Amino acid sequence: MAGQSEPGRGRVTIRTVAADAGVSVAAVSKVMRNAYGVSESLRQRVEASIEKLGYRPSVAARGMRGQTYTLGVLLVDIENPFLPSIYQGIEEMTEARGYKIMVGVGKAHERREAQLIEQMIDNRMDGLILVASQIPGAVMDRYARQIPTVVVGHHEPQADSFDTINSDDRQGARLAVQAFVERGHRDIAMLAMEWDARHEADVSPQREAGYLAAMAEFGLAGRARILRVPSSEKPHADDLRRILAMPDRPRAIFCWSDLDAVPLRNLAWQMGLRVPEDLAIIGYDNNPVAALPMIGLASIDQDGPRMGRLAAEALLSRIAGRRQAEHVLVPPSLVLRGSV
Amino acid sequence: MAGQSEPGRGRVTIRTVAADAGVSVAAVSKVMRNAYGVSESLRQRVEASIEKLGYRPSVAARGMRGQTYTLGVLLVDIENPFLPSIYQGIEEMTEARGYKIMVGVGKAHERREAQLIEQMIDNRMDGLILVASQIPGAVMDRYARQIPTVVVGHHEPQADSFDTINSDDRQGARLAVQAFVERGHRDIAMLAMEWDARHEADVSPQREAGYLAAMAEFGLAGRARILRVPSSEKPHADDLRRILAMPDRPRAIFCWSDLDAVPLRNLAWQMGLRVPEDLAIIGYDNNPVAALPMIGLASIDQDGPRMGRLAAEALLSRIAGRRQAEHVLVPPSLVLRGSV
DNA sequence: ACCGAGATGTAGAATGTTCTACGTAGAACG
DNA sequence: CGTTCTACGTAGAACATTCTACATCTCGGT
Fold this sequence. Notes:
Two copies of one chain form a homodimer.
Chain A: H1 14-21, H2 25-33, H3 40-53, H4 59-65, E1 70-75, H5 83-95, E2 100-105, H6 110-122, E3 127-131, H7 137-144, E4 149-152, E5 163-167, H8 169-182, E6 188-193, H9 203-217, E7 225-229, H10 237-245, E8 252-255, H11 258-270, E9 280-284, E10 298-301, H12 304-319, E11 327-330, E12 333-335
Parallel strand pairs in A: 1-2, 1-3, 3-4, 4-5, 5-11, 6-7, 6-8, 8-9, 9-10
Antiparallel strand pairs in A: 10-12
Chain A binds a DNA duplex through helix 2 and helix 4.
């Protein structure tokens, strides 16, 4: 019922172009795809007609047989200011190669993410990049058999149906612990998300493992403490407050994400704690908010743009035919700020 | 070249379902679309087969004739934390009605936005929502004739080919000026974006007009001052610093967006200015960062979710056949915080 | 003059839906 | 009992591409 002014009679299709250029439909198709077997003169003629008529191929029709030259990017969440940096990297890489991107927002909800993936398959996207998806590995595997897939921010090093690009989350945690230790801290806790076995591949458990390993490495195994807050659904300000009010409040906290580190730092301020004197904090993601001078939150930087570029490269090579899975770990770095 | 395991032979199409249920292809199509003329018994039979086979219609094939039940949402920018709230509203409304959403990110770049719109038309989206687009009205008009369109955050009250949903930006500016006046301020400046005639319909010029009108209303016409920073491309920290260092620095600043108000507030802090004693600030958008206790930035709230819902409703009714354009203004409100 | 190989171009099937037009059976009506 | 509706289904064209043969041309070599 969505009929607009022109009932469709006006639409310029590949047929219109072919007629105008005086060649076959197949010839125009070849030109569009840079396919083999088109002479320079033919190409020029066809391109002139395309230009003249303003022809644009229908992605829908393309999708029925060949490629759509469109990639799907699934973001966990649109509110985390760290994610756009990954997106930038993806885009930079794919745009140059003539691919378009469609974004889906999963809102950290597994059911929803699955729907979006199916929708992208239905839309005949050429490939998929899942960023920090909540979907369990087994399910990912099933989808990945239907469509070339690269996963970012989800550790599944043994997967063979898709590639993974990750920050070296264990190393990131180690950097944080080391920075605390070098500044004389011994009472170093970690603030982590609650998780169950289904989410073992998520980043938070990896950072936990790294934290515990680093504490042991620095001879502080006995002092390791993991404080938990409910998974990333909104309201855990109260949990954070409770943590800061504990009689044995730690002197330094490594926080699994700036998503919690920023509120934590704000609560500390509200409760009159001096940062870093009473409480030192290091977050994760180097979220732009952490960089604001008034917040001044030290954080582990994952180099989002680079992860994005790597993911895009992996996807394109997979689309080009690669079958062997690739698993990349990107080294993180620590950005020091006032909170340590 | 993207071939996955199953060469396609395995794909379950509408034909598979029809065969399984022992009915015609057209019958299955009717069931999928809830179209007229299908008996209860037939519907049940078909639905059982769909369930059993896990059939999912191909959006590509659908797009070739009918609707795709997919809407395109074009966001200026993925880094502005205010935009997700509009997105939530859009989604809430459309999801319930069985529509899917694809997001495009324009990065405040006109050429890019135009490409994305064309891409969405190519993908046969049923309709488009443009959020804070940079595209001039005349160009929008051309696109809007090809596809049902609703525009958010772009004032074009005379447009007849598309609908607009906006915050009442003039009223928002008035609220800010009024709040300052009530607190005894008279030296009230506005921080605005540079703009040219092409962007008169953007929100910043509207807020300027509202500021000037309000200053006049409160008898301060002679004291109105508009300070300009380069358009939203990144680096204007230096411009902000210069403004704060002016000998005749204003005592109160109404800022066109939290995008600039947050850095401004941070710079003031860095330069040792007391807020609000030395400088009071009100921003616009009620960006989540403004709400952080340490930032405490008063801001005009646009009720993003509501604008999103209204935009979605307008689009759906337009898809359903409405031709007459609608132009809605949503009243803003002031959220008071420490910066005033 | 003939042949074979490569390069260039074309016809037409295939893709998975929707939509138009039409057929058929049973009910309601005179 | 014939006629006319109405409700339910179906056949097949249409949609805009790509892709798989296949046909035709051009040359250089015999």
